[in-house]
TrEMBL record:
SUPFAM superfamilies listed in its UniProt record: Thiamin phosphate synthase
Taxonomic lineage from the root: Bacteria, Bacillati, Actinomycetota, Actinomycetes, Pseudonocardiales
EC number: 2.5.1.3
UniProt binding sites for 2-[(2R,5Z)-2-carboxy-4-methylthiazol-5(2H)-ylidene]ethyl phosphate: 147-149, 178
Protein name, per record: Thiamine-phosphate synthase
Species: Amycolatopsis eburnea
Length: 220
């Protein structure tokens, strides 16, 4: 179970503007310092998304425990990618599920009602479905630009962001994919008010400054 109630997690999600996905930084060995820096810079939600193949479940749980401590220090939400069992094990606030991950009702059976569940979407139809899907709380839409972080995923671009914004969903939603400081104004102009980034912070020389610069330009 997460430490916070579902209502508190959902209130924090509502005010979240900057969501970071990071791997476990196994080769650098600096996950705790990196997370502290990114969260100090204004990241609201941090997800462990380690697709390096280096982590078995125990390693993923260990890395998530490092992130959980950082989230507790900074009042941020801890997000697990793909795996409801791991989310349950670490008491995560958030589980993120893509179109090919386990179905939301199954995740809900494992996690109960307090944990926030998010969905990836890559078309207007998927986004509108996620906006009202029972058991889901938020969704992400993109990629806004092709990105090496998700090789082979077609980028629907900012037209998708514009279409979602004009549908004015009640649920929180985030734009994702290829977003950095230079591109952020175009994403905001397209109607997004929340973003997810990977490289813009994970590859920054100064992750705190990178997060701060992004956060300062997102209203709210
Ligand atoms: C916050 C957030 N948004 C989108 C994704 C992508 O999820 P998915 O499509 O399942 O792809 P993988 O990340 O699992 O490769 C995400 N992880 N987090
Ligand atoms: C993990 C992921 N999911 C996407 C989606 O469109 O669902 S795009 C993406 C990668 C985003 O990485 P970066 O900020 O480095 O471009
Ligand atoms: Mg996934």
């Amino acid at each position: 179970m997460p430490a916070l109630s579902g209502d508190k997690i959902r209130a924090r999600l509502d005010s979240a503007r900057l969501y970071l996905c990071t791997d476990a930084r196994t080769s650098r060995g600096d996950l705790a310092d990196f997370a502290d820096a990114a969260l100090a810079g204004g990241v609201d939600v941090i997800q462990l998304r380690d697709k390096t193949g280096a982590l078995e479940a125990a390693g993923e749980i260990a890395a998530l425990e490092v992130l959980a401590e950082a989230c507790a220090r900074h009042g941020a939400l801890l997000s697990v990618n793909d795996r409801a069992d791991v989310a349950l094990a670490v008491g995560a606030d958030v589980l993120h599920l893509g179109q090919d991950d386990i179905p939301v009702p199954l995740a809900r059976r494992i996690l109960g009602d307090d944990v926030v569940i998010g969905r990836s979407t890559h078309s207007v139809d998927q986004a509108l479905a996620a906006a009202s899907e029972p058991g889901a709380d938020y969704f992400c839409t993109g990629p806004c630009w092709p990105t090496p972080t998700k090789p082979g995923r077609h980028a629907p671009g900012l037209d998708l962001v514009r279409a979602v914004a004009s549908a004015a969903p009640d649920r929180p939603w985030f734009a994702i994919g290829g977003i950095d400081g230079d591109r952020l104004p175009a994403v905001l102009d397209a109607g997004a008010s929340r973003i997810v980034v990977v490289r813009a912070i994970t590859e920054a020389e100064d992750p705190a400054a990178a997060a701060r610069a992004l956060r300062a330009r997102i209203p709210g």
